[in-house]
Amino acid sequence: MSNEVIIEELNTLLRGTYMGIRSFEHYIQKAEDDELKRVFQSMQQEVKLNAQKLAERIQNLGGVPADDEGFSGSMHSFMHKAMLPDDSKEIIDDALKGLDHYGVQYSEELVRGDLDPVSKQLAEEVIDTSRKQIEQLQHLLHQF
User: What is the pLDDT confidence band of residue 71, given thresholds at 50, 70 and 90?
Assistant: First the structure.
């Protein structure tokens, strides 16, 4: 397996990570509840750290890391912001769906094959962050 393939896979995961950062920005802007806003800010910081780790891994493999979510991610982000609900419970529901669909399911599909052991471990850490955030939001959902 070549580094180019690994770099492309990691860059795809990195672009998705940037989409997550942007989505959390939308949630932070919409959230009226201060506690909910703090939770989203904390989650966004975790995702930013993951983006930094992915970018470093790509560089260490001799690649150039993506620096944004890409065109399709940008279009998705625009639509997401426009359609985001105002209600805290619905915002959390939206975040849960996004984390599950993109942060876990799509990411797992993406990293199923073409990664070296170090990159695969990093990708698993990124996915585990999403899993942990899902659990955190499911717990928080009961407060609203």
Answer: confident
